[in-house]
């Protein structure tokens, strides 16, 4: 038996989480270093997975399969396709930056505090989330996926509710109330989604008799497993609802702004760049494969909802006064693009959506982490409290601008490629939707540039006049992200090569082919 | 030889990277690094030009394939460069004028503490602009297209501490984004129509597609061109863009970037040729803008804004010519090149004036400067003569050809377009004479500023005047050089194609009419500004003047409809999101809370009430069982 | 005599017991009513045993008696200790799980 690489990728951060939590109270710095090293080691494993993965090979690779709960046909089944590989790589890649950016976010407020080792807890929870997200990407057993899809709510709940920004405008008391509101809202939203999904999972079992994604999909494809149209639709809706909450899709989005606003910047990145991706990923992997006909049936509605997300999210981002909320609504708009790409059911759309997940992760991380550095300097999230920062902290302002430009999908930076692919993919099948979605790029420019203008330009406000520029640790976080944004914008081929075969498979799952151009001869 | 093409772009890109990442260490030498790399690119351009000249006319297209950029199923985007006569013309204009302006900026930005960054942005602009004209497919062109937009954004807002500059930069980017939307939809349309968006296949198969699709593509390309080239209705950003340092206005907002729209239309000529409706719209946009810009230019007292109006108007001429089809393509590009010379020269002259006048821009505070700044006066004057189309100078040849071509379009359209172009020529003569008279002639009108510093007008240093002299030489001779023996026509014809229209009136008559218009324009301006002293405070003016001062109320319209409307929309949406969408969620939560509060009351602790519920439940079950039996 | 009459009696006794449980507050009376209900059940079991001609009902009646006896032991003890602490045998006074 070969080395269980996928299990190792998930188990390593889990073990790291336990070890980090066990570090004695006085050795805070050791816990930080341990967490960082574990996340780096996981990154190495993720890169090994990426290298070992053969894009031209079987659909699911590096598979592992063990009996688990034999009575219910639940198996411990792991396997990755191209889409999962790049998302695992994204997750593993972002973790060291999240940890590094949150280096001082969870230090006890006063030294000698009696609180239970908050620093250790913070980093242990982050690693725990990583482990669960990674295994969600790897699971090819529906039940196994469901367990970790739900379980990751627990560490996330504590991360949102337990650790917030320092120096809140309305005092620590109000901050703590708002934090717990945000955390509970996050939890309840996702639990409701998960509950409905659980019902659908059980329903799937009663119909199919097992939980294996590959087996069910196969049986669906060759006709041995027949599902009544209405059954398939109900099951699809059950799954889709959970993923739409997680993604989040309009109108199930309102937990995200609260959660991102109240948590620290690294945790906000964790939510939007990593955890939410499980939702969109699962749409591609589970909804489309298990319920191809129902997916096609629901496509028009979902496309319209995605379109609303794009425009609505962008418009709301324009109207925000809080930097983090603004980024949250921008993310909602971007998730609209991802879902649009998935359900446009074209190769360009789905490849674009997958790339979009990766690129959005990196660009949001860049923007949000720099915003976090900014907020930690001034102790306020309100845009109006800033002004003229570029004069006193030019590097901070410059990196913030690059993060913003990535968010507005400037050509040459990674998000452009994915956004354009999604737009083209949508346009070839649904021209009107494609055109309306294009308005999103104007609105994206609006909210990003307004944010930059209000915070960074103009006369220097007295409160920011002594603001220090980025420190070495912060530069270490931002620079690699920016380099990646540029690299993937100029040369996305390594990713597309991995993703394309998987997308081709998904396209054949749903029995769709790309629309043909009007003039064939030109090609 | 093909391998040199990438180096054209690589040189300024390297400069931008070095200057922007290099940090303070490079502060002292940054300007020279920037200038050197820009000149390097120019040298490569000249080498390639010489190489092209040595080839046969039909063998002058060089293709360099670098790598595959985005490969997804049928969607194939490559990083491939195409150097042909059209892009060569642009390369020389961009790198040549660009290098001169780099040199000029060395003097102009001498005292700016963020000079290194300025040169980094300028190099970034050059790289993006070269990418735009060298790209071999529309998606890569789009990268350059937005790249120049970014550079323009950074440079307009270079003095970010001024809120007006930051706002102008944002506005420019946003308006351009609206245009970019057009380009991106055009690319999508091309993809669905042809399955590709590379120049070769799209343009060679353009006629295979239905006219409706081609018209749609054409109109979307026009929207893109309107944004980038400041054509009505997306022209409003150009005036505000003058907040940027003057070399930027000269390079980006006069000579090169704003002409990208013309490049796009001429490059896509095959599409437009097969879509007459789109062409008609192009000519209308061009004609409207050339009058619009000219009228705005007449009313501005800010020397740069007057020149900006003029730029808009001159690009209107080019767009008009490009919309005429093969009759006009060559002349659009020719006017673009000559305009690049004289307008860049005029802007540099304006910069030189401001440099000597403590950055004063109000022409009512100038006057009589010819004595103080002789070189600036002469070079500016030559640029002035060129732009109004003084016989023998560049503008005369290029503009005259466009007016002829407009008439040659034939039919009523031809008459209307030609007349617009003629009227435009008269207004051009008027406002340029006005600028000239108010700046260099008459009495001196400057006053001490609020700190009590009286400006001491002085000539600019050599590093600034040399580029001005070179550009002035170009303004004088370029047109003649291009036109003698139809050199420019023969150079570009293999790419753009050319046809002589059938003009209802002869070329001589057109030239005569143009001369009459020129004399009328200059004459009126002389009567108004040369004979009478210029008031230091602008008179109230007629309704048209007042409207023109406000950019013909276009901005006010935008403000009321888009800005205000948008603000209301977003504010109400924020409210809706909070109360309605989130309200439903919170309401559900509150509902469950209330319900459980009620239910809790049932648990009162009295054993008897529990007993009641038990018996009640049992009774219900029994009743249900009996009922089921009965049924 | 028709055994159904015994069933009517059992039902009547059960109803009396149930009513007593519901409306009386004195714990002793409630307790006695519960006993009454149990005995009504016993009666029904015995009748059913007779009607169906097997011994199952009678055996269960014995079980019920044993359970009832055990219940009396525990129940009375609880009532006594309740009365000691609260000086009242009313079931409504013991509405909380604490003193």
From TrEMBL, chain A:
InterPro entries: NADH_Q_OxRdtase_chainM/4 (IPR010227), NADH_UbQ_OxRdtase (IPR003918), ND/Mrp_TM (IPR001750)
Location, primary (coarse class): membrane
Key words of the record: Membrane, Transmembrane, Transmembrane helix
NADP recorded as keyword: no
Annotated membrane topology: Multi-pass membrane protein
Entry's localization field: Endomembrane system; Membrane
Span of domain NADH:quinone oxidoreductase/Mrp antiporter transmembrane: 139-443
An annotated GO BP: electron transport coupled proton transport
Keyword DNA repair among UniProt keywords: no
Top-level taxon of origin: Bacteria
Protein name: NADH-quinone oxidoreductase subunit M
Annotated transmembrane regions: 31-51, 83-103, 123-149, 186-208, 234-255, 267-291, 297-319, 326-345, 357-375, 395-418, 430-452, 472-491
Family: Belongs to the complex I subunit 4 family.
Molecular function as annotated in GO: NADH dehydrogenase (ubiquinone) activity; NADH dehydrogenase activity; ubiquinone binding
One Gene Ontology term, aspect cellular component: membrane
From TrEMBL, chain B:
Localization of this protein: Endomembrane system; Membrane
Stretches assigned to the NADH:quinone oxidoreductase/Mrp antiporter transmembrane domain: 135-421
Segments passing through the bilayer: 32-54, 89-106, 118-135, 181-202, 214-234, 246-266, 278-299, 372-394, 414-442, 463-485, 505-527, 610-628
GO cellular component terms given for this protein: endomembrane system; membrane
Name this protein carries in UniProt: NADH-quinone oxidoreductase subunit L
Record-level Gene Ontology MF annotations: NADH dehydrogenase (ubiquinone) activity; NADH dehydrogenase activity
Recorded superkingdom: Bacteria
Gene (name only): nuoL
Membrane topology per record: Multi-pass membrane protein
InterPro entries in the cross-refs: NADHpl_OxRdtase_5_subgr, ND/Mrp_TM, NU5C-like, Proton_antipo_N
Domain NADH-Ubiquinone oxidoreductase (complex I) chain 5 N-terminal: 69-119
Biological processes annotated in GO: ATP synthesis coupled electron transport; electron transport coupled proton transport
Alphabetized UniProt keyword annotations: Membrane, Transmembrane, Transmembrane helix
Organism: Streptomyces fuscichromogenes
Automatic annotation (TrEMBL), chain C:
TM ranges: 6-23, 28-48, 60-83
Keywords from the named record: Cell membrane, Membrane, NAD, Quinone, Translocase, Transmembrane, Transmembrane helix, Transport
Pfam families per the UniProt record, alphabetical: Oxidored_q2
Membrane topology of this protein: Multi-pass membrane protein
Stored InterPro entries: NADH_UbQ_OxRdtase_chain4L/K, NUOK/Mnh_C1-like
Subunit organization: NDH-1 is composed of 14 different subunits. Subunits NuoA, H, J, K, L, M, N constitute the membrane sector of the complex.
Protein name, entry field: NADH-quinone oxidoreductase subunit K
Catalytically driven reaction(s): a quinone + NADH + 5 H(+)(in) = a quinol + NAD(+) + 4 H(+)(out)
Subcellular location: Cell membrane; Membrane
Purpose of the protein: NDH-1 shuttles electrons from NADH, via FMN and iron-sulfur (Fe-S) centers, to quinones in the respiratory chain. The immediate electron acceptor for the enzyme in this species is believed to be a menaquinone. Couples the redox reaction to proton translocation (for every two electrons transferred, four hydrogen ions are translocated across the cytoplasmic membrane), and thus conserves the redox energy in a proton gradient.
GO cellular component, one term: NADH dehydrogenase complex
The family this protein is said to belong to: Belongs to the complex I subunit 4L family.
Superkingdom classification of source: Bacteria
Biological process (GO), any one: ATP synthesis coupled electron transport
Alphabetized Gene3D superfamilies for the sequence: 1.10.287.3510
Lineage: Bacteria, Bacillati, Actinomycetota, Actinomycetes, Kitasatosporales
Main EC class the enzyme belongs to: translocase
NCBIfam families cross-referenced by the UniProt entry: PRK05715.1-2, PRK05715.1-3
EC number: 7.1.1.-
GO function terms (MF aspect): NADH dehydrogenase (quinone) (non-electrogenic) activity; quinone binding
């Amino acid at each position: 038996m070969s080395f269980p690489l996928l299990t190792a990728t998930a188990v390593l951060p889990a073990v790291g989480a336990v070890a980090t939590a066990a570090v004695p109270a006085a050795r805070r710095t050791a816990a930080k270093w341990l967490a960082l090293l574990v996340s780096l080691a996981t990154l190495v494993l993720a890169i090994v997975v990426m290298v070992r993965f053969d894009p031209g090979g079987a659909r699911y690779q590096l598979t592992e399969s063990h009996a688990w709960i034999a009575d219910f046909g639940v198996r411990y089944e792991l396997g990755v396709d191209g889409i999962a590989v790049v998302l695992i790589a994204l997750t593993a890649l972002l973790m060291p930056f999240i940890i590094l950016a949150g280096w001082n976010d969870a230090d006890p407020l006063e030294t000698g505090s009696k609180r239970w080792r908050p620093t250790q807890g913070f980093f242990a929870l982050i690693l725990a989330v990583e482990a669960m997200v990674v295994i969600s990407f790897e699971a090819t057993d529906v039940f196994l996926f469901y367990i970790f899809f739900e379980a990751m709510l627990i560490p996330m709940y504590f991360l949102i509710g337990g650790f917030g920004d320092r120096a809140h405008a309305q005092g620590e008391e109000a901050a703590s109330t708002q934090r717990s509101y945000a955390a509970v809202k996050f939890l309840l939203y996702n639990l409701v989604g998960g509950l409905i999904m659980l019902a659908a999972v059980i329903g799937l079992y009663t119909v199919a008799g097992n939980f294996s994604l590959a087996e069910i999909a196969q049986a669906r494809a060759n006709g041995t497993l027949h599902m009544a149209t209405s059954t398939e639709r109900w099951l699809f809706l059950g799954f889709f609802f959970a993923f739409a909450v997680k993604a989040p899709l309009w109108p199930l989005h309102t937990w995200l702004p609260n959660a991102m606003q109240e948590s620290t910047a690294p945790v906000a990145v964790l939510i939007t760049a990593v955890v939410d991706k499980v939702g969109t990923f699962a749409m591609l992997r589970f909804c489309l494969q298990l319920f191809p006909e129902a997916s096609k049936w629901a496509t028009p509605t979902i496309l319209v909802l995605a379109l609303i997300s794009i425009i609505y999210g962008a418009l709301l981002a324009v109207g925000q006064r809080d930097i983090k909320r603004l980024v949250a609504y921008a993310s909602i708009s971007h998730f609209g693009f991802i879902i649009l790409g998935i359900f446009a059911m074209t190769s360009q759309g789905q490849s674009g959506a997958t790339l979009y997940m990766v690129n959005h992760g990196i660009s949001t991380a860049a923007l949000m982490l720099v915003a976090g550095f900014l907020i930690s300097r001034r102790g306020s999230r309100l845009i109006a409290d800033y002004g003229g920062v570029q004069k006193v902290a030019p590097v901070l302002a410059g990196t913030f601008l690059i993060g913003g430009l990535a968010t507005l999908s400037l050509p040459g930076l990674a998000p452009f490629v994915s956004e354009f692919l999604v737009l083209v993919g949508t346009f070839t099948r649904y021209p009107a939707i494609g055109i309306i979605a294009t308005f999103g790029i104007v609105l994206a420019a609006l909210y990003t540039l307004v944010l930059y203008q209000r915070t960074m330009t103009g006369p220097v406000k007295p409160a920011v006049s002594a603001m220090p520029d980025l420190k070495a640790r912060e530069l270490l976080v931002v620079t690699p992200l920016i380099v990646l944004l540029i690299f993937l914008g100029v040369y996305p081929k390594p990713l597309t090569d991995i993703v394309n075969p998987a997308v081709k498979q998904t396209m054949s799952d749903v029995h769709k082919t790309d629309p043909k151009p009007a003039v064939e001869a030109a090609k | 030889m093909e391998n040199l093409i990438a180096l054209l772009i690589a040189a300024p890109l390297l400069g931008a990277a070095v200057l922007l990442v290099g940090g303070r260490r490079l502060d002292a030498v940054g300007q020279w690094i920037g200038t050197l790399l820009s000149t390097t690119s120019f040298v490569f351009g000249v080498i390639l030009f010489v190489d092209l000249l040595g080839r046969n006319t039909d063998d002058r297209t060089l293709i360099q394939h670098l790598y595959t950029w985005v490969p997804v199923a049928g969607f194939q985007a490559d990083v491939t460069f195409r150097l042909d006569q059209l892009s060569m013309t642009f390369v020389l204009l961009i790198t040549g004028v660009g290098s001169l302006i780099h040199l000029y900026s060395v003097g102009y930005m001498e005292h700016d503490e963020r000079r290194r960054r300025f040169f980094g942005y300028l190099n970034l602009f050059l790289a993006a602009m070269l990418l735009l004209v060298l790209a071999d497919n529309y998606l890569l062109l789009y990268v350059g297209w937005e790249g120049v937009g970014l550079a323009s954004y950074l440079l307009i807002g270079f003095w970010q501490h001024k809120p007006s500059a930051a706002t102008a930069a944002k506005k420019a980017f946003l308006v351009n984004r609206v245009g970019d939307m057009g380009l991106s939809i055009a690319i999508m349309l091309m993809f669905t129509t042809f399955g590709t968006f590379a120049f070769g296949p799209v343009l060679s198969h353009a006629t295979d597609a239905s006219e409706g699709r081609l018209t749609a593509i054409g109109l979307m390309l026009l929207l893109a061109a309107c944004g980038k080239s400041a054509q009505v209705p997306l022209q409003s950003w150009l005036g505000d863009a003058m907040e940027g340092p003057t070399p930027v206005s000269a390079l980006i907002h006069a000579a090169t970037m704003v002409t990208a729209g013309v490049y796009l239309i001429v490059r896509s000529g095959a599409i437009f040729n097969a879509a007459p409706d789109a062409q008609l719209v192009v000519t209308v946009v061009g004609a409207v803008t050339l009058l619009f810009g000219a009228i705005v230019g007449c009313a501005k007292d800010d020397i740069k804004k007057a020149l900006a109006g003029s730029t808009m108007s001159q690009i209107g001429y080019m767009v008009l010519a490009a919309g005429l089809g093969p009759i006009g393509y060559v002349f659009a590009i020719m006017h673009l090149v000559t305009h690049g010379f004289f307008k860049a020269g005029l802007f540099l002259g304006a910069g030189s004036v401001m440099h000597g006048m403590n950055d004063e821009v109000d022409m009512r505070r100038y006057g009589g400067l010819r004595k103080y700044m002789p070189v600036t006066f002469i070079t500016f004057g030559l640029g002035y003569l060129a732009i109004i189309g003084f016989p023998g100078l560049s503008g005369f040849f290029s503009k005259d050809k466009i007016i002829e071509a407009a008439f040659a379009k034939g039919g009523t359209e031809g008459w209307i377009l030609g007349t617009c172009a003629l009227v435009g020529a008269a207004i051009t003569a008027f406002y340029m004479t006005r600028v000239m008279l108010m700046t260099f002639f008459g009495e001196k009108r400057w006053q001490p500023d609020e700190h009590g510093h009286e400006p001491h007008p002085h000539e600019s240093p050599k590093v600034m005047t040399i580029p001005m002299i070179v550009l002035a030489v170009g303004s004088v001779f370029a047109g003649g050089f291009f036109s003698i023996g139809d050199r420019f026509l023969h150079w570009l014809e293999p790419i753009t194609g050319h046809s002589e229209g059938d003009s209802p009136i002869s070329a001589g008559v057109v030239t005569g009419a143009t001369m009459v218009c020129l004399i009328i324009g200059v004459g009126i301006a002389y009567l108004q500004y040369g004979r009478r002293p210029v008031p230091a405070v602008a008179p109230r003016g007629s309704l048209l003047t007042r409207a023109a001062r406000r950019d013909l109320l276009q901005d006010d319209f935008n403000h009321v409809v888009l800005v205000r409307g948008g603000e209301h929309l977003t504010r109400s949406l924020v409210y809706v999101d909070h109360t309605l969408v989130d309200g439903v969620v919170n309401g559900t939560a509150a509902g469950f809370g209330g319900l459980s509060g009620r239910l809790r009351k049932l648990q009162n602790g009295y054993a008897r009430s529990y007993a009641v519920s038990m018996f009640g439940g049992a009774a219900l079950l029994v009743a249900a069982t009996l009922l089921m039996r009965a049924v | 005599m028709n055994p159904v009459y015994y069933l009517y009696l059992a039902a009547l006794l059960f109803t009396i017991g149930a009513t007593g449980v519901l409306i009386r507050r004195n714990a002793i009376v409630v307790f006695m009513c519960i006993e009454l209900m149990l005995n009504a059940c016993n009666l029904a079991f015995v009748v059913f045993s007779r009607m169906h001609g097997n011994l199952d009902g009678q055996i269960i009646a014995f079980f019920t008696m044993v359970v009832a006896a055990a219940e009396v032991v525990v129940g009375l003890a609880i009532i006594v200790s309740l009365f000691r602490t609260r000086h009242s045998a009313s079931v409504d006074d013991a509405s909380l799980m604490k003193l």
